[in-house]
Structures are given as structure tokens and as C-alpha cells.
Amino acid sequence: MLNRPQGTTSGSLKSVSEQLDRRAVERVAKLARLELTGEELDEATTRLAGMLAHFADIDALNLDDVEPMTQPYELVNVMRDDAPLDTLDHDEVLAAAPDASDGRFGVPPILGLEL
Amino acid sequence: MSDVGIWTHDGFEMVVGLEVHVELATNTKLFSGAPNRFGDDPNTNIDPVSLGLPGALPVLNRQAVELAMRIGLALNCTVQSCTFARKNYFYPDMPKAYQISQYDRPLNIDGHLEIADGIVIGIERAHLEEDTGKSTHIGGSGRIHGSEGSMIDFNRAGVPLVEIVSRPDIRSPEQARQYVNELRAILVEIGASDARMEEGSMRVDANVSVRRPGEEFGTRCEIKNVNSVRSLGRAIDYEARRQIAMISDGEAIRQETRHWDEGDGRTHTLRTKEDADDYRYFPDPDLVPLDPGNEWIESVRANLPMLPAARRTRLAEMTGQSAAAEAIATIVERRQDDYVIAVAEIAGGADRVLIHVKEAFSEQGSEPTVPAADLAALVAMEVAGELTSTQTKTLLGDLVDQGGGDPAAMAAARGFEAMDTSELDGFVDAAIAADPDAWAKFCAGDGKAMGALVGHVMKASRGQADGKAVTAMLNARKG
Amino acid sequence: MSGFQNARSIVEAVSTGATSAVDVLSEHLARIDEREAEVHAFNLVLREEALQAAQQIDDRIAAGEVVGPLAGVPIALKDNLCTRGIPTTCSSKILDGWRPPYDATVVSRLANSGAVFVGKTNLDEFAMGSSTENSAFGPTRNPLDTSRVPGGSSGGSAAAVAAGFAAMSLGSDTGGSIRQPAALCGLVGVKPTYGAVSRLGLIAFASSLDQIGPFTHDVADAALLLESIAGHDPGDSTSIPQPFPSLSESLTRGVDGMRIGRIVDLPAGADAEVVASVDRAFDVLASAGAEIVDVSIPAFTYGLTAYYLIAPAEASSNLARYDGVRFGSRVEAPDTNSMYMATRGEGFGPEVKRRIMLGTYALSAGYYDAYYGKALKVRRLMAEDFAKVYQSVDALITPASPSVAFPFGSKTSDPLAMYLCDTYTIPSNLIGHPAMSVPFGSGEQDLPIGVQVLAPEMGEPTMFAVAAELERAAGGSHV
Which of B60, B335, B464, C277 has a CA that sits 20 to 30 A from residue B445's CA? Predict the structure, then answer.
């Protein structure tokens, strides 16, 4: 059983159970640079909405005064000296690239990158 | 008089904030041990981290943090505990498809920088982040549009940057130029960066809006691709006028990113806000928080060199000039002020030293090859009247050419012996005899006539006579 | 099934010359020849490389050298661990053909300890799954019953040890990916304290949750393998900068005087036979002198939600680097953006795409606070709840998996049903605590059941003591 005060979601927060529509899913796919077929988009819409509905359980928690925890083992000030280390073999690395010439990696024209 | 504080057009003023990216002068990259070196063959300074290979992990470079703290402290910022965040976006020169930057907890906040006339420009933040690689566009005359493809070099990927974000306190192109020049001088002075706009180690983006004074801020546009301080002034001037013209035509300004075109002197739409990317910032789980702590902060502060503004004040006080004087600015910019002071401390004549160093040492660095004692000896001879100003200049040239030397010996070698009074008397007698008209006019009070008489003396003495001594002698004869 | 009961006996025999590393390896390769076609534990068997390594070990031993604590032990590596020059795929088409230019830290450490790598094992693509059915190269079968899954995502590593293809193996555990397959294959599987084992060279799924750990036939082997890979690595910023505690004394310590917690509000969902095994485990521990204490962890039940927001969010960013530019596969397209879309659309399988979508959404503008931000707060509640409980107990016992190994396809149509497999394992990942699964009893079809032992941060010595006690009571490993 829950022994925490039941909080209400504050107005500025979107409820986790908020339903996704297909257009939002399409936008997410574009943002993630994933080409999805119409069928995949439909499936993703249903699946994501279902998951988010399931995840709505945490809406019941009052988290206002809780500090977010980004890392499980809390370290601070991990640094290294400014000393050069080995670099990779130029030819080996470029040989692994889908497209390379003149010592550089090749890509098709850079267009339409903005969402 | 400069137009530092004033730029208005049709009753509008411009409101400008600058985002300046500077590459830090470290040996290695921000999060890996690959060399941070400009100009190497493409894709040679790479390691798994710079290339964003699967399984690679970042480890923060302590020296990059130290240099970033120097920048923060030199800009009067508060240095605080901070975190690293991922800024997610796809671009071929961004290897991991995210840039490690600082978002809601930057290292340096709330600073300021003073430019001329006591104008203070606020600094919102100065945070650490990694640089991207470089794309070269093939075909289409090297521009993105119309190119056949792009080639990527990741040598620059991961080079440490500090992004210095000013508050929208800048009101004229001249202020913007001064801000960038002063910032650059500080960065060089503290050894944080070589800050060369031409090489891209310092890059400036400008947020420009316009308003009628006293009104709310207008909609701003971000101007990119400004590659020199001169272009910066031109670009924001153009952009402000463009916005004013639109408003005057009843059009609304769209928030957008614009590209400065050096060729046509205009800005062009790069992307509008509607298609702005959604960067999905979140704390980078591969890195832990950074908390420099008082001890480190205070030791960095204590080791900061004297900053350009303080150097100018010190030099101005010593030489009796205004801190805004051109010679002061030039000497401090060349970082020759320590030298000037060292020379003046030996033999006085600080004002003369300043001028000589400004004129004759433009090719020399912060540590001129001429020993301070040698230049001091020369100035001492000049101040004592043992050399004419022409002779001094000649010997100054000799000192620079030879990297120093004994000025007395050099003067002797050139035959610059101070003339004794009887010899000079002879020349003056001859001059009066040669040009009685001039002598008569001079005695009647025509000061201009003295020039002709001095000219005779100089000619007869082959320039060896001291002009001041000749003048004194003529005045004495006139009675 | 093997001439050797465990890895320790191999080390003993090889080091004393009683047998050769080549003979030990040949025995394992023979079993691979016999059953690998059916089991499909491996993406790649390193036959030649392993024979060479084994021969080298034999040569060194013949020369009187001390080879290391794992001399001659055939070990399988999950195919998300970078191996220099050897294909590393994460069971994804998008990494097809990629050979890392460097070794993961754990790989170098094992090599230096005398291990012989027999192959790279199959996994759910990018470690996302609980059955190894999400591999782009086909599923792995459970050697104990080939109509059933081995669990996942480290199913190949579990199957390789269960089938006798390797004496031990490494997996990675982000939400239970070592402990659940260990339970389903009758092995000991350990997820160490976050930061105890370097993640450098582990291809990231969710950076703040991923840990590498061992699969072994018994608890003592697990201690041996874990001690070989654990310890500070300056190349991983999240690596704990302390020596890893020795586990050897834990194996014989017993549980006398320990307080072991039973979580009264543990989420329901485990099969009755699993619950019964856990109950028997408590009885066994009580009779061995432990005090069983009822405790409450209210946040436990929210682990699944927090996990399925945090892990996909981090994954969406970690997997952005697979963009067809620097390595891996590319689908050609007329412009870079279409190339990204096509390469990633084709290169990733359905579950990976689903999680990238979920994570991208959870981080996107306007949703961060509602999803990712909230999940991080739930994580804090979880840590606080556990911290409170560990004031009164030394360790906790739960099921490792809600059920024994399940038939192929029984959960593939409903991702949520699959996610529920992780119910009991997820909290340890969220808060970074160690946890391990140890075989204890069996269920339907005589399939093994795993009991999970949980301990606080760096509490591996306690955890191993409890696991060893359970193992003694169960009468050794389930083979």
C-alpha cells in the first residue's frame, strides 16, 4: 500500500496518461530520424499510448519536493590530466566508414536537417 | 568622437546580445586525450570519443575546466558547481548526434565586461561545451545549397569551447566591436584561447532586435557566419535597419536564424523558429557533476594576470596619458606595456619610451629583443639633450636591427657627437649672415622666420645640431 | 556435461599442467560443434583466435610464467562488448560488419587474466528485451529446453554457459538482463554495484543503468570472474574510485547473525512455484542463523514505470550515433536527412525503434517534466526507500524472474507483458545497488528457478555470502 500523500498533478505538467495522436508520433519519428511505414506509425501510436497509459501510475505520487536522481552512484569532480593519449589509425577508421575519400567521411548533400 | 553609445534610426534603437564561442588552448580535447591542434591532416586527431564510436566514454579535461574558470573570473562571473547535459540533434559533423554542453547549471554565471566610456555589458553565462567537426561542401561553389555532398573532418570534434553569452546590453555596432575586441584581449591575456576569428578559434553570433527606446524588447533574429570584427559591425547594422524597415512597412519580425553574406552585405533566412529543432536536453549520464569549490576557484583567481583594462590604466598613469589614448591601447594590445614600464623604471622618460616602442617595435612581440637597459640608455641620452630627435630615431632603428647595443657607442660610430657651444655659435653666426632678411623679421617678432634660420644651421651642420639648442641661442641673441 | 565442474577447476588443472588450455578449449569447441546449430548462443565463434590464445597460455605455462587467475578458462562475451578487430554487432543490422578499433576494459582485463575468448554471444538487439527474441540474427534457445527462451537480453551468454560452450561468460544488465537469463538457464548471474565494473567499451543501452557482470555455474566462479573485471577505470567517469572488496571470505562466511529482509509490498505477479522457492529460501536462511525481517518498499512498484521512461530516454540519445556516417551500415539516399531516416529505419528492429520513440517523446519539449523528470524523482524515492530498509537489514531476497523459462512467442505480441519480466530486477539498476540471481529449486518441467539476493551499494561481500548459503542449501548448481 501507498503510504505517501496522494498528490495531484500540477496544472503545468502534462499528465502521463495523456493520449498520443498519430501526428505527434510522426513528429517524434522525424525527431528520432526513423523512417516508419504507415503501418509502423499506426502500431507505434497504439503501443506508445498503451505504454504511457500504463505508466500513469506515477501520477499518483506527490513529487514536488523530490530531488531528481540522475545517477545511481553519486560521484563528483572526475577529471583527467590534459595529456595526449593514443589516437586511432586514420586508415583503419576510414576503411570502416560507409563512404570516405581524401581522408574524410562522405555524406550526401546536407539538406532538410531541421525538423 | 566615437559613436559608442548612440545608434538610432527612424526613432528606433538596436538591442544586441552576443554569443561568443572560443576554443580553449588545451593540449587535448574536452573529453578525451586526442590532440587539440589546428591545421593537421583531416581525421588524424581522432579517438573513439571524438568519433562517437559505440562504447566510447567521455572523461573531463581538468585544464579545460581551469581555463573556463579563468574566463569566468576575468569576466567577473560567479563560478559555481555545475553539470553537463546532452543537446541532441543530428548533423553529420556532430559525431554522437548530441553535443555535450551545459544547460541549466553552467560553470560561470552573472558577470560583466566594461567597454569604453564606462559602458558595462552584462554576461549571462560562460559555459563549457565540445566543438563539432568540420564539413566541406563539394560542388555548388562550396555552399550547402546546390552541393553534391559534403566531406567531414573530425579533428575539431571534441575541442573544448567556452560559450560566452552576453546580456542584450549592446546598443551600437561600435559597442559590439569594442565588446569583442576587449573580450579577445582578455582571452589572450589570460592564456585561455588564441581567439582568432579568422581561424575560427573565436566565433561570434549576434542576437539582434530593435525597439523604440523605453519599449519592450522586439522579436530577435540570430545572425550567424560573422567572420571578423568588421563584419560584425556591418551585419548588425544591416540587420537592425532591415528590421526597422519591416516594422515601418507594417510587417512583423519573425524569430529566425539568419546567415550573414559577406559578399552582398546582407543577412538571409537560414531557418525559422517553426522548424527549430527540439534539442531534448537532459543530464549526461556518462559524466558526473563538477564542483570546483572555493579553494580551486580562489587559486585560479589569485593566478589571473593583470587584465587589459588594468594594464591600460597602469600604463596611462605612468606615462601621463589618457587610458583611452591610442598609444596606450596599441602597447597593451601588443602586450609591450611591461617592457615600456621596465625601460622607464631604469631611466625615466616614460612618455618618450611609450612613443618609441609604439613606433619602432610594431614587429616585436611582448618581449622585445632590445634589452630594456639599452633602450633606457638611449632615452636617457635623448632626455639629456645629447641627441636630437632625428638622431634618436636613427639609433632606435639601429637598436631594433641589431637586437640591442650600447647607444653611446652607436652614436659615436655614427658620428652623433653632441656639438659644443662654440661650434654651434659659428653655425648661428653664419645663418644670420646668410639670411639677414629672416633675421630682421625674426627680431621684429615674426616667429615663422625662425624656421628659415634653424634650417640654415641644420643644413650647415648636416643635421647634427640640436634644434632646441639652436632655438634657444637665436632667442638669446635677439635679446 | 564437462570434465570440469567449474572454472576454478580448469584454472587449477591448466596452471599445474594437469591439462592444457588447448585441451580444455577443444572440449568446449566440441560441444559447440554438437549443439550450437540448435542453441544459437553465438553471433560469432572465435575458433582460430581462441586456439591461438590457448596455445599461448600453454606456452607461457610451459615457460614457467604465472598466467593469471583465469588461466585457460574459455569465456564467452556478450556481443555488445567491444573487441578490437573482431565484429561487434549488438545483434543489430545497423552495426553489421563493424570491427571496433579498441577493446572494452573488461575484455583487456580478462585477456590479462589468462582467459580464452570462445565467441561473441547473441542478445536482444542493443540489449533491449527479456527473451533474446529481438536479435536481428534470430533467437537463442534455452539449452535446458529448446522450445523455450533463455531469457534476455544476455540470452546468448547464459545459453553458452548452460550448454557448456564456455565455462563462464559476461553479460550486461540494464534492467535484469543478466539475472533473468541466469534464472531461466539455471546459472548464477550478477549485476554488480553501478560503477564497480568499467563500462568503457560496453555499447551503451542506458548509461546510468548498464553494468557488466558474470554468468557462471556457481557462486565461487562468479566471485572469481567479478573480481577479475571489477575495479576503478580512469576511462569511465562513473567508475567508483575505490578498490573492489574481496569476495573470497564471503563464500564461507555463512549468514549467521545476518538480518535478511522480506519485502511485504513486493509487486504481485510471480508464479506460485517461484513464490514457493523464495519462501523456502527464507526458511533455509533462517535455519542457517539469519533473522528474517519484514520490510516495506512502497516505491518498488513504481520501478517499472520509472525504468521504462529513463532507459528509453537515455537509449534514444545513445543510439543517435548510428547515423550511417562513420561506421556500420548505411542506406543510400539523395540527401543526408533521408539517409539518416532510411539507415535508421532499416537498421533498427521493431523493439529498438519502439524504445527510441518512447524515449524521444519522454525527452521532447513540453514533456520532459511530465515523463523523464518525474521518473528521475521516482528513482530518488526508490533510493530513499531502500536506504531506509538497509538501516535494519543486510540483504533482501526476491524472485529474480516472475516465472521459469517461457515458450517462444508467448510474450512477443505484447511488449508490456515482456516488460513485466523485469519487475523484480529493475529497482537495483535504478538505484545502482548490486543484485544477483542464484539457482534455487525448480518449477514446471523441472525448469530452474532463480532467487534474487539484493544488497546495498558495494555490498557484494554480504550478497555473495547469502548467495553461497542458498547454493549450499540447494546442493550446488542446477545442471
Answer: B464
Task: Tell me the average pLDDT of chain B.
Answer: 91
Give the tens place of pLDDT for each residue, B362-386: 888 888 999 999 999 999 888 887 8
Instruction: Report the number of distinct structural domains present in chain A.
Output: 1
Residue span of the structural domain in which B16 resides: 8-301
Catalytic residue status for C374: no
**To the nearest whole angstrom, how far is the Cα of C108 from the nearest Cα of chain B?**
14
Query: Is the residue at A53 inside a domain?
Result: yes
Residues 6 or more apart whose Cβ sits within 8 Å of residue C108 = none
Query: Mind listing the domains of chain C with CATH numbers?
Result: 7-236+244-256 (3.90.1300.10)
Residue B204 included in any domain: yes
Q: How far is B76 from chain A (nearest CA, A)?
A: 23
- Average pLDDT of chain C? 96
Residues 199 through 218 of chain C touching chain B, CB cutoff 8 Å = 199-204, 206-208
Q: Which of B413, B440, B457 is the last residue of a domain?
A: B413
Claim to verify: residue B396 and residue B249 sit in the same structural domain: no
Residues contacting B396, CB < 8 A, separation 6+: B356, B359, B360, B375, B378
**Do residue B350 and residue B390 come from a single domain?**
yes
Please give, rounded to a whole number of angstroms, the shortest distance from the CA of A14 to a CA of chain C. Answer: 6
Element holding C224 (H helix, E strand) = helix C219-229
pLDDT greater at residue B467 or residue C362: C362
| Ranges under pLDDT 50 in chain A | 1-17, 115
Candidate list C15, C20, C78, C91, residue with the active-site label: C78
- Chain A residues with CB under 8 Å of B128 CB are none
Q: In what order do the strands lie in the sheet with C259-263?
A: C42-45, C116-121, C74-78, C168-173, C211-216, C188-191, C435-442, C448-454, C395-399, C259-263, C291-295
Residue B378 lies in a domain: yes
Least confidently predicted of B192-201, B217-226, B328-337, B462-471: B462-471
What the block records as the C-alpha cell of C241 is: 574510485
What average pLDDT does the segment C271-289 reach? Answer: 97
In angstroms, rounded to a whole number, what is the distance separating the alpha carbons of residues B421 and B411?
A: 19
Chain B residues interacting with chain C (CB cutoff of 8 angstroms): 48, 51-60, 86, 88, 90, 92, 95-98, 150, 152, 154, 278, 280-282, 285-288
The answer to whether B92 faces chain A, any CB pair under 8 Å, is: yes
Last residue of a domain, one of B247, B270, B301: B301
Could you give the CA distance from residue C202 to residue C239 in angstroms, rounded to a whole number?
13
| pLDDT confidence of residue C172 | 98
The tally of CA atoms less than 13 A away on the side-chain side of residue B420 is 1
B327 and B192 together in one domain: no
